[in-house]
Design goal:
- The complex is a heterodimer of chains A (332) and B (496).
- Chain A has 332 residues and is mainly alpha-helical.
- Chain A has one domain (17-330): ABC transporter involved in vitamin B12 uptake, BtuC (Orthogonal Bundle).
- Chain A contains 14 helices and 4 strands.
- Chain A has a two-stranded antiparallel ribbon with strand order 1-4. A two-stranded antiparallel ribbon of chain A has the order 2-3.
- In chain A, α4 (102-128) runs antiparallel to α11.
- The longest helix of chain A is centred in the middle third of the chain and has 27 residues, at 102-128.
- Chain A starts with 16 loop residues before the first helix and ends with a helix.
- Chain B has 2 domains: 5-237, Rossmann fold (3-Layer(aba) Sandwich); 255-488, Rossmann fold (3-Layer(aba) Sandwich), CATH 3.40.50.
- A 6-stranded mixed β-sheet of chain B has the order 6-9-10-3-11-12, sandwiched between helices.
- Chain B starts with a strand and ends in an 8-residue tail after the last helix.
- In chain B, 48% of the residues are buried.
- The chains are: A mainly alpha (332), B alpha/beta (496).
- The interface between A and B is large, with 33 and 45 residues.
Chain lengths: 332, 496
């Protein structure tokens, strides 16, 4: 219905569940944590939660763009394991030639980023050029990477040379002004992601494609290139997450990065991004990552519920988030 | 005789805003009732109240004289009231039979009675003179056939009241005539039909009674007999519309756009034409004659053979950006599927095409808001508030938003495809003025339209297409209905 009212007067916004929901949930979790355990608010506990969440968080920021543009990537967990395996094998192989030092580590980091980039590009090419459904493509590559890392480790564990591990350690355990590197990188990626999503043409184009691909095409948006870019960006961020992850344990196995893809997708959806695309927000994803991280942490700190039920509680939160989302949209 | 369905003193509010004020309509068995009005006059809301999609805020709905409360479309269907939406309500991947029986499948024991349903559907289709097979998937049959399937579905539910929202908007003249014969037949069988259309000629042809809505109120309800189209239009708009088209103008400077030997596989063969500066060039022809495909190819939205030059510079095929940079834009005929992001705000829609103008690394939100203010003022876009989603605007306002979006690229050549489809007559007049103003400012405009009066009233020169080829052109004093129709039907011209 068209009313001929003055267009300037926007009505007062109702309190929007859709926007407030994830933040409210995070607040409730914090209150629960404080109530249940005195140690919860301690600096070491909170930074521990953040550092552990950083890997999923960095990947989830990239996933936000893919999902906003109407895509999906199930391969990120396996890809992370594969990237970790490639890095470890390359660094171990280079050790005799280059000696143990920062040089090998830098090459390893570069290899990690490039492998992630290529992994994303392969997903992107199959989706855009071969026009295969993203779900199918990444289901396939998920299996391929998982199988490759198992093969590379010969069913066991690939370990980084002990001395090299020592050199590499600070990338995970080191701190700047008391804040550890993974947290700093996660924060930078999140801020850059939020700005890109809200304030650049790329972000706007992602939302347009996810909202209606045909309209985007008729609006001179290069749909293929933008969609390709979302997968490449995600692959690159998988690389970034992995170069932070390798120094933590110094090894990779068939179990590395298991179910990361589901945690990342869950964080994106809890944060209010629409699974079918068209609308995404990076800050919401960050909140989603923190919610998932805090649930695990609270269960570990208290004996109220068995930590083995972590997955069940996460599952409930995910379903609840989507129900709330739908309510929020209907009230618009 | 009691009316089958009647509304008395019905109002409907959305939040604090009342959009229907005291509507009184009676639908009688065996009568075709036309409900007309501008976009946003309250036609859809009235129909939704009748068919149970919306409850009235006050007033009563009566069936056979007894007051009822319709709380859902299913309940209304139970009472024999069926609404056919403009965008059909059919499952594209199911067959005709499956659609007709969707939700009320016939069964034999625990299993579906396929043979029985098929036979029943075939009988319905035969009765409607529809040639579609009961086994065809909806996605594979033509739009008019889909409409017949909708009607068959309504009949299978023993509809006594059939409510049709702009049934002819997507039909060609011939298909429209077939539909009207069906409506006449239904009428003879005692069905009450309520129908809306922006085509007043059809209303004259079909309706027994006409009700005119304006701004949510009834301004006229009378026998159709003796009512002229002018009277209807005047009642709808509330002002005299004798000057629907602006005065004709002299067009034609230098050639700005030149298309040579354009070929789009399956759609267009060897089309060549020139467009001059300040000219309004019409493209007429039947639906499916290749006009849209030709223009999409020219604008870089489709692969093509042949050359397109703008001011002497050749444009690459199948790329839209260079065409826009050369000042050439195309406005799609399909606002909802290709034109606007219906679930996005006006601002995001407005700037999507010309986003680089608002983006220096980061998007300048203030400049975007200023552009939206400007567009709302320039194009007279009527909105309840600025945060409204594009999908919630009426068709006319969507079209204006689409025009504003396209003009943000500051083009020199504008191709508009069916600019007034599904739009009320008052907004049509505004859009004609806009198009004229563009030409007066020195822009060149191509108008594709299936409405002959529009092409004749608006254009300096008209090119007619027939079956993918340019059949010929008429200019100046020769632009008349007869000449265009003869070319479009292949009775004369190069393609004959």
């Amino acid at each position: 219905m068209t009313a001929t009212a003055e267009p300037r007067q926007a009505p007062r916004r109702r309190i929007n569940l859709h926007a407030i929901g994830p933040l409210a949930a995070l607040g409730v979790l914090l209150l629960i944590g404080i109530a249940l355990n005195d140690n919860f608010l301690s600096y070491s506990n909170l930074t521990n939660v953040l550092a552990r969440s950083a890997f999923i968080g960095i990947i989830a920021v990239g996933m936000t763009f893919v999902i906003t543009a109407g895509g999906l990537d199930l391969s990120v967990g396996s890809m992370a394991a594969f990237v970790a395996g490639v890095m470890i094998m390359v660094m171990n192989a280079l050790l005799p030639m280059m000696g143990q030092g920062v040089g090998v580590i830098l090459v390893g980091i570069l290899i990690g980023l490039v492998t992630g980039l290529f992994g994303g590009a392969i997903n992107g090419l199959l989706v855009t050029r071969a026009r295969i459904e993203a779900f199918i493509v990444t289901l396939g590559t998920m299996g391929i990477y998982r199988s490759l890392i198992t093969w590379m480790a010969d069913g066991g564990t690939l370990s980084l040379n002990y001395e090299l591990s020592g050199v590499y350690r600070p990338v995970y355990y080191g701190t700047v002004l008391g804040v550890s590197w993974p947290i700093i990188v996660f924060a930078l990626v999140a801020i850059a992601g939020e700005i890109t999503m809200r304030h650049t043409r790329f972000g706007r184009h992602c939302a347009a494609i996810g909202s209606n691909e045909q309209v985007a095409r008729y609006s001179a948006v290069n749909v293929m290139r933008v969609r390709m870019a979302t997968y490449v960006l995600l692959g690159l961020l998988v690389g970034v997450a992995t170069i932070m992850y390798v120094p933590r344990l110094g090894s990779a196995s068939a179990a590395t990065g298991l179910l990361w893809e589901l945690e990342a997708i869950a964080a994106v959806i809890i944060g209010g991004t629409m699974l079918k695309g068209g609308f995404g927000r990076v800050w919401g994803t960050v909140v989603g990552v923190l919610i998932l991280g805090l649930i695990g942490n609270i269960l570990n700190l208290t004996d109220l519920v068995s930590p083995y039920l972590n997955g069940a509680i996460q599952g409930i939160i995910i379903i609840l988030a989507v129900v709330l989302q739908r309510g929020g949209i209907r009230s618009n | 005789m009691k009316p089958v369905l009647s509304l008395s003193n019905v109002t409907r509010s959305f939040g604090p805003i009342e959009v229907l004020h005291g509507i009184d309509i009676q639908l009688h068995s065996g009568e075709v009732h036309a409900l007309i009005g501008e976009n946003g006059a309250g036609k859809s809301t009235t129909m939704k109240v009748m068919s149970g999609f919306l409850a009235p805020s006050s007033g009563t709905v009566c069936i056979d004289g007894d007051p009822v409360r319709l709380t859902s479309p299913a309940q209304a269907e139970e009472a024999g009231i069926v609404m056919i939406h403009q965008e059909f309500n059919l499952a594209a991947h199911l067959t005709v039979t499956e659609n007709v029986f969707l939700g009320r499948e016939m069964r034999r024991g625990p299993f579906l009675d396929h043979a029985g349903m098929r036979k029943y559907t075939q009988a319905l289709l035969t009765r409607l003179h529809c040639n579609a097979s009961p086994d065809a998937r909806i996605a594979d049959i033509s739009v008019p056939d889909r409409q017949m399937v909708e009607i068959a579905k309504a009949l299978s539910r023993h509809a006594r009241v059939l409510i049709m929202d702009e049934p002819t908007a997507v039909l060609t003249a011939r298909e429209t005539e077939v539909l009207f014969q069906q409506v006449d037949r239904l009428k003879a069988e005692g069905v009450a039909v309520l129908y809306t259309s922006h085509k007043l000629g059809e209303v004259r042809r079909l309706a027994d009674r006409v009700t005119v809505l304006r701004d949510g109120s009834m301004v006229l309800s009378d026998c159709a007999e003796g009512m002229t189209e002018d009277q209807m239009a005047t009642a709808m708009v509330g002002r005299d519309l004798s000057d629907l088209y602006p005065p004709k103008r002299k067009g034609g400077g230098d050639v700005v756009l030149s298309a040579r030997d354009i070929r789009v596989p399956r759609f267009v063969e060897d089309a060549s034409f020139d467009l001059r500066q300040g000219e309004i060039l019409g493209f007429a022809g039947l639906v499916g004659s290749g006009r849209t495909e030709l223009m999409e190819a020219v604008a870089g939205l489709r692969p093509r053979d042949g050359s397109v030059t703008v001011n002497g510079a050749t444009l690459p095929a199948d790329r839209m950006r260079p065409a826009i940079q050369a000042g050439l834009v195309y406005l799609t005929e399909d606002r909802k599927e290709s034109g606007l992001l219906l679930n996005k705000s006006l601002r995001e829609n407005l700037t999507l095409l010309a986003l680089e103008r608002f983006s220096h690394g980061l998007i300048d939100r203030k400049a975007e808001d200023a552009a939206l203010d400007q567009a709302i003022a320039d194009w007279d876009i009527r909105i309840p508030h600025r945060d409204v989603l594009a999908g919630n605007l009426s068709g006319g306002n969507q079209q204006k938003l689409l025009l504003a979006k396209t003009m943000l690229t500051q083009p020199r050549i504008v191709i508009v495809d069916e600019p007034t489809r599904g739009i009320d007559i008052g907004t049509k007049q505004q859009i004609y003025r806009f198009i004229h103003r563009l030409a007066d400012e020195g822009l060149s405009v191509i108008v594709i339209s299936s409405e002959l009066p529009e092409v004749i009233g608006l254009c300096d020169r008209v090119i007619v297409m027939q079956r993918g080829r340019i059949a010929g052109q008429v200019a100046g004093a020769d632009v008349n209905e007869r000449a265009i129709v003869r070319l479009a039907m292949g009775l004369e011209g190069e393609a004959a």
